[in-house]
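User: I'm new to structure prediction. If I give you an amino acid sequence, what do you actually give back? Let's try with this one:
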Amino acid sequence: MTLVGTRFEILANYERRRLGMPELPLAIVPYPMGGVATEEAQRRAVAALDQVVNGLTVQPMVSPQAAKAKVDAGYDTTV
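Assistant: Good question. You get back a string of structure tokens that encode the predicted 3D arrangement of the chain. For your 79 residues, that looks like this:
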């Protein structure tokens, strides 16, 4: 699970594929994350909560091609 600001969503998608983890869950939150009022930060946290909970509790779908690529790359897929 990775928390990502909207400004970095494209980069996050690229990096998770490049690192061999295309199914890594992302929680996308409004950018910027810092420098906002406390009330706004709390509102954003509540809005992102479902994404975070789903990312931590739902087993991601892995395509057969992705699973084979992990095995071919030497990743331990038994976890």
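You can read the tokens as a compact description of the fold. Here is one thing that stands out. The first strand starts at residue 2 and ends at 5.
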